[in-house]
Write a structure and sequence with these properties.
By secondary structure, the chain is an alpha+beta fold. Among the domains are: 96 residues, PDZ domain (Pdz3 Domain); 249 residues, 2-enoyl-CoA Hydratase, Chain A, domain 1 (Alpha-Beta Complex), CATH 3.90.226.10. Helices cover 35% and strands 17% of the residues. The strands form three sheets. Strands 2, 3, 4, 5, 6 and 7 form a six-stranded antiparallel β-sheet that branches. A six-stranded mixed β-sheet has the order 8-9-10-13-14-17, with helices on both faces. Helix 3 runs parallel beside helix 5 and helix 7 crosses helix 8. It comes from Nitrospirillum amazonense. This is Peptidase S41-like protein. It holds the Pfam family Peptidase_S41. GO terms for molecular function: endopeptidase activity; serine-type peptidase activity.
Length: 516
């Protein structure tokens, strides 16, 4: 069962790839950003040819259609934003269409409206492709990776030509505008249920959304406050992807949770450590089937075999920075620690719509691998339900691993960049009592509007995602919130290779009970 990944390609190291403008940028947030269970590929229906620009009438017609179809398709478009507020923004955006627009300009305008719903699976994602193309053409960008804490903007990596801007320094203003205002402006482009979730995404994408706001720039004037309290203004040049790549190698080392991507070992204090990595086949980037679970199953089985051979009784499962993926993968791991059958949800309701039915049918007809048995379950459901009706969707429980299970104590380690299926795994572990959850609260939702589908607008060919379902975490908590750890471990402002969070988690695990 595919889960929407809040950030399928975007984790710490990939943030640099986005800043450098690689094609990873076009893939990122093929997700948002949030929640659970979105079927990934767009429908295979024919799309109009891309034009250099679109007339006002074309853009107006597609904006009107976008809003009408979202109303009909989304499970509850106004769950977090009053209809009057969305109507007001819609009219404002409509009034601003007075001349021809490029596809990128139309996408940004449409995304402003969709993002106003504050639902991670309601989104227009085209800006990633435009950004990747801009960076590939050596377009210049804001030369900092950022860290956002308590609404304040900090330098996470200085990739500029100004050496005296240490990481951790706070950015107070950009071009004379307070940083808080820039965060408000860039958040307006992000589909996210909460400000915290939007900020966690901006930690990857702030330079991109700043570019959406101000366009190409040769440089910026920034006001910075260092850790010792000194505040000063300085000019920094915007940098190309090649310039950023060159300076990145000279930066102080940062915590890297991608090399290796998957990891299983015994920590110095005898605690087992498992980092499963993304819940999809990472070899897909080289042409392999993204949903082939074979290699992942081998890795997980070997890991638990090693823990058994080494007589490990305490285990940390590291879900930090996890972009999510598919429960076909995560169930391989969770079944090793489950002591009874489980589901990742307590309630899964779908609002039937014509676009959801069409998208599902297109997937079955044109991409059998992506469709799998779940799309056929949807098709059976749709066969007897009319558009506008809300129906319950059911799945069988997942059984514990038939070959045995890990008998020790389990701790799941999470952070603000645990997304999508990673959040569902943490919620399942917590709600079923399979283990304790440590770390910082996820910004992505454990109960969410998800199961994303897509439709394509006829004039511009722009693709729009919408959440057709409301999925409630296993314990039945309907509040739109992330997973709150049982034991909080704050993340440092700047995360370094010594990995203070893991050190603290290992201390907690080592002093905990040996048996669950």
């Amino acid at each position: 069962m595919r889960h929407a990944s809040g950030m399928p390609m975007g984790r710490r190291v990939r943030a640099l790839a986005l800043l450098c403008g690689s094609t990873l940028g076009a893939l990122a947030l093929g997700v948002l950003t949030s929640g659970v269970l979105a079927l990934v590929p767009p429908p295979a229906t024919a799309q109009p040819a891309v034009q250099a620009s679109y007339s006002p009438d074309q853009v107006l017609a597609d904006l009107d259609m976008l809003y009408q179809r979202l109303k009909a398709d989304a499970f509850d478009l106004y769950a977090f934003t009053p209809e009057a507020e969305m109507d007001s923004l819609y009219q404002t955006l409509r009034a601003g269409i007075t001349g021809p627009m490029t596809r990128t300009e139309a996408e940004a305008r449409f995304q402003r409206l969709v993002a106003m719903a504050h639902q991670g699976h309601a989104r227009v994602e085209g800006v990633y492709g435009a950004w990747a193309a801009y960076r590939k053409a050596e377009g210049r960008a804001f030369p900092f990776m950022v860290r956002i804490r308590d609404g304040r903007l900090h330098i996470a990596a200085n990739l500029s030509d100004v050496p005296h801007l240490p990481r951790g320094s706070e950015i107070l203003a950009i071009d004379g505008v307070p940083a808080a205002r820039w965060l408000e402006r860039t958040r307006a482009h992000v589909s996210a249920e909460t400000t915290a979730l939007a900020d966690s995404i901006l930690e990857y994408d702030f330079p991109m959304y700043l570019w959406v706001e101000v366009g190409a720039r040769s440089g910026f004037k920034v006001r910075v406050k260092t850790a010792d309290g000194d505040a000063f203004d300085t000019d920094v040049a915007a940098r190309t992807a090649s310039e950023i790549a060159a300076v990145a190698s000279r930066q102080p080392p940062r915590l890297d949770l991608e090399h290796p991507l998957r990891d299983a070992r015994i920590l110095a204090n005898g605690v087992g450590y498992l980092r499963p990595g993304p819940f999809y086949n990472e070899a897909a980037r080289t042409g392999a089937d993204e949903w082939d679970v074979t290699a992942f199953r081998t890795f997980i089985n070997n890991a638990f075999g090693m823990f058994a051979a080494k007589d490990v009784h305490r285990l940390i499962i590291d879900l930090r920075g996890n972009p999510g993926g598919d429960s076909l993968f995560s169930d391989v791991m969770v079944s090793w620690i489950a002591d009874r059958p489980y589901r990742f949800f307590s309630s899964f309701k779908i609002r039937v719509s014509a676009d959801a039915v069409t998208a599902n049918q297109d997937r079955i007809l044109h991409d059998a691998v992506a469709a799998g048995p779940i799309s056929r379950r949807f098709a059976d459901l749709y066969a007897t339900a009319h558009p506008g009706v809300v129906v319950d969707f059911t799945l069988p429980e997942t059984q514990p691993n038939p070959g045995g299970r890990f008998q020790g104590t389990v701790y799941a380690l999470i952070d603000r960049h645990t997304y999508s299926n990673g959040v569902a795994v943490a919620a399942t572990i917590q709600d079923y009592g399979f283990g304790k959850v440590l770390g910082e609260a996820t910004t992505d939702m454990a109960t969410a509007y998800g199961a994303m589908e897509r439709f394509t607008l006829p004039a511009t060919g722009i693709t729009v995602g919408f959440p057709k379902a409301h999925i409630v975490r296993p314990n039945g908590d309907t509040r739109p919130r992330g997973v709150t750890p049982d034991i909080a471990i704050p993340a440092p402002l700047i995360e370094t290779p010594d990995d203070a969070m893991l050190q603290r988690a290992a201390e907690i695990a080592a002093t905990g009970p040996a048996r669950h």
